[in-house]
Amino acid sequence: MQPSTDRVSLLIESGAPVLLVRDSTSSAPVVGVFDYNTLNAYLLIAVGIAQPNDEHRTESGSLAQKAAQGKPIPLRDVRDLGRKDPITFLPESANLSRAIETFGRGIHRVLVAKEGPEGSIEVTGLLSQTRLMRFLWDNARNFPVIDQLYSQYLRDLKIGSTNPISINGDRPLAEALALLLDEGVSSLAVLDNGNNVVGNISTTDTKLLTKSSSLPLLRNTCIHFISVILSARGMYEGKDSFPVFHVTPTSTLAHTVAKLVATKSHRMWITDPPMSSGPPTPSLKTASMVPFSTHNSSIGSGGQHHVQHPQATSSDPFQVADASPKTPMITPSGPSISASAWPGASYGEEDLPAVPYEEVWILEGQYDHQEI
């Protein structure tokens, strides 16, 4: 099923968000990327769920045939599948302001490059939104303009995008993955029958679907797949965990960024604050992904700013203590859990906003670039 099985394994085991694709081992120029969006698109085409556009219809039909026959598939045949950011380069001499401006336009990663022999471009590194956000968070006190934003409430900053993408937890997983592909997003909210957010599914989670034995999961429910995600995460981390997917309008930007950094998420759901007479979880007032936070910051439930900025060497909450490869114990044929059985935060009836990375970059980019 996998395009170049060793490449898929490299993507998963390295923890890297993307692999750079070159024409050959001796070729320096980067001609494409292979990431989890690519993997998701390939899986859906291979099993006949996604219909490729006219541009890729012929080659995608060939991919599906090769997959059915178990033939190896080179990366060059799949690198253009799915929606992708344009390959964007920044010179090594570029300052952080240029990176922030680029990310504010919706670009998720940039290639850091220098000029090589005969005017060629030599890639020397990769800078992602996640890495830059972590750097600015760890070193906030060195950037007073940004640091002063952290104590402000989300409602006062007026950031957030509307129309978040979501799916009912009782729908098949295949529909969620197809929605990710069609909408060109990296994650979506999973709702129960009461319109409460009970989880999140991202393209990164497709790493649990790369074995043929896992394909029945595509026909099972989204809520069942969330239980698989949590089971795998608990095994890797050595403890049970249940992610938290929300902040509130009265959360500070520091509270929000702390969760983004700790969980390596790209967006968060903004919820209504919990009411004393209401359910224990708040009702959503916006939308975005926020897994559980294990960041070593003191952040109250009301989003008050009591932040202890972590050291650069602080532990990663998703770091694998034992580096030896493991395979999650997945039981795709197990009983499906109804979405109504999961606790969650009420999503509400109106179109609700989200706080993605791009909103933070735009906010920070509005301030004096001389400070960055």
TrEMBL record:
InterPro entries assigned: AMPK_gamma/SDS23_families (IPR050511), CBS_dom (IPR000644), CBS_dom_sf (IPR046342)
Domain CBS residue range list: 81-145, 160-217
SUPFAM superfamilies to which the protein is assigned, alphabetical: CBS-domain pair
One Gene Ontology term from the biological process aspect of the record: cellular response to glucose starvation
Signal peptide: none
Chain spans, region Disordered: 271-344
A molecular function GO annotation: protein serine/threonine phosphatase inhibitor activity
Bias type Polar residues, positions: 283-299
Keyword line: CBS domain, Repeat
Protein name per UniProt: Cell separation during budding
Protein's organism: Lithohypha guttulata
